[in-house]
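Human: I would love a firmer grasp of how sequence relates to backbone shape in proteins. Take your time, and here it is.
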Amino acid sequence: MLTDKLELIGKTVASNTDIIGYDRVLFARPELQAMLLKKFPSEKIHLAKKIVTLDKDMDGVTITFDDNTTACSDILVGADGAQSAVRQHLYKTLEKEVLLPKSDTKPMSKGYISLVGMSNKLDPVKYPGVLEKEYEGYCIVGDKDTPYTASYAVRVHVS
């Protein structure tokens, strides 16, 4: 964590595994959709539909959408966001079966806000690491009278 004068005032001392129980993987949702569309038949992928019910049995899973259509499959990939209907159903099922990990009963907040933006090309001498494939940027902490600009922003996935 840096001040608005780029002075180091703090750093992360715990890994994601220590905090949330597993490592994180960051990627853009369109990348996941492109991968799924490439690997599975298009008729097996349902986009822009809201799941109303989800039923599983020994033969697989059946989902009903809000337009009353259904889909059956051996597996269900819930790529529907942080407040996922698929995740919520899975949590309820695991909770009933007393299989839900205690860490998953806590609110989904790590106590910080992520601000994502874009900037002009950054000088690697001034911002070491920006040439790496994956790079996490700086957190700028300024006072109420000291504005900072997007020139401090760093992309997470630099290709």
